[in-house]
C-alpha cells in the first residue's frame, strides 16, 4: 500500500470502540493514531460524550484540534475548549417530547447536556460523578434553554427496548438513539447525527465520504458507518452494527482500531 491509498479521514467512536472497557486508551492505540496522522490522514473523534469528557484526549486531535461530540450536536475545539458549531434542541420541542415520553413511560428520568453545562432531575440515576456546577431541577427548568442532548433513563428497560418505546412517541420532532448505555436513550435535535456533522467537517477539509473510514460499536454509530466509504464494526459491537459494516475489527479491549490502522499504514516493503 502506498500513501495515495491511505484514507484521508479516519473517524472513530470512543467508548466501546477506541477506548477500552476500563476507560483507557492504550499506548498501542495512541501510537497507531499518531502514526496515521504523520502519514497525512486527518483523525477525528466522533462521540456521544459531552465536551468536558474530551479534554483528557486532546493529544489525539491533531492539527485541526476538533472533535465531534454529543452525537453530532457539537463541533468542538478540544484545545480551546469552545464550541465551533452547534445544533441544539429547541426548548419548546424538547419539553413537548419529554412530556410525551413521561405520559407513556412514567418511570423515566431526564437529564440534559448543554454545550457548557450538565443538568438532571433529582431522581435521575447518574452512573458517573456529576460536575460541581450540575443543574438539579425539574425537566421544565432543564429544558428552559436549548440542549445538545436530552437523556432518557429507565430503571428497568434495556436501551434497545427503551429506544423502541421512545421512537414512536417522539416521531420526527427529534432524533432518538442510544450508545449502548444501560437503560439509556439519547435525544438530539431533528436531523442531528454523527454522520451529519462528520460530513460537514469532512467538507471543510476537502475530503469525501469515499476517502473516509469509520469505526463504531453502537446504534448511534450507524449513520456514520453508513456514510463512510469503508466502515469497521468492533467485534464487541451491537448486532445491527455488525450487520451493516464492511469489516469487523478486533474488540475494543483488543485494540481493534489500532490493529486496522497498523495494517493500513504499514510501511511499504
TrEMBL record:
<dbReference type="Pfam" id="PF08282">
    <property type="entry name" value="Hydrolase_3"/>
</dbReference>
<dbReference type="InterPro" id="IPR036412">
    <property type="entry name" value="HAD-like_sf"/>
</dbReference>
<dbReference type="InterPro" id="IPR023214">
    <property type="entry name" value="HAD_sf"/>
</dbReference>
<protein>
    <submittedName>
        <fullName>Cof-type HAD-IIB family hydrolase</fullName>
    </submittedName>
</protein>
<dbReference type="GO" id="GO:0016787">
    <property type="term" value="F:hydrolase activity"/>
</dbReference>
<keyword id="KW-0378">Hydrolase</keyword>
Amino acid at each position: 500500500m502506498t500513501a495515495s491509498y491511505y484514507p484521508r479521514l479516519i473517524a472513530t467512536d470512543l467508548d466501546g470502540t477506541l477506548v477500552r472497557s476500563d476507560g483507557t486508551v492504550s499506548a498501542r492505540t495512541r501510537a497507531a493514531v499518531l502514526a496515521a496522522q504523520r502519514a497525512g490522514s486527518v483523525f477525528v473523534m466522533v462521540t456521544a460524550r459531552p465536551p468536558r469528557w474530551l479534554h483528557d484526549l486532546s493529544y489525539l486531535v491533531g492539527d485541526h484540534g476538533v472533535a465531534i461530540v454529543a452525537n453530532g450536536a457539537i463541533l468542538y475545539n478540544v484545545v480551546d475548549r469552545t464550541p465551533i458549531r452547534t445544533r441544539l434542541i429547541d426548548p419548546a420541542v424538547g419539553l413537548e417530547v419529554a412530556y410525551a415520553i413521561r405520559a407513556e413511560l412514567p418511570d423515566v428520568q431526564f437529564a440534559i447536556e448543554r454545550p457548557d453545562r450538565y443538568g438532571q432531575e433529582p431522581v435521575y440515576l447518574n452512573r458517573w460523578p456529576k460536575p460541581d456546577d450540575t443543574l438539579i431541577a425539574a425537566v421544565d427548568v432543564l429544558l428552559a434553554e436549548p440542549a445538545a442532548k436530552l437523556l432518557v433513563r429507565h430503571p428497568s428497560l434495556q436501551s434497545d427496548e427503551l429506544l423502541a418505546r421512545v421512537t414512536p412517541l417522539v416521531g420526527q420532532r427529534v432524533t432518538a438513539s442510544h450508545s449502548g448505555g444501560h437503560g439509556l436513550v439519547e435525544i438530539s435535535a431533528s436531523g442531528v447525527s454523527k454522520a451529519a456533522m462528520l460530513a460537514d467537517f469532512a467538507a471543510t477539509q476537502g475530503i469525501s465520504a469515499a476517502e473516509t473510514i469509520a469505526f463504531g460499536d453502537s446504534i448511534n454509530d450507524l449513520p456514520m458507518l453508513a456514510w463512510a466509504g469503508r466502515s469497521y464494526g468492533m467485534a464487541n459491537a451491537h448486532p445491527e452494527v455488525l450487520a451493516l459494516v464492511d469489516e469487523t475489527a478486533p474488540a475494543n479491549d483488543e485494540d481493534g482500531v489500532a490493529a486496522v490502522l497498523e495494517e493500513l499504514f504499514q510501511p511499504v516493503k
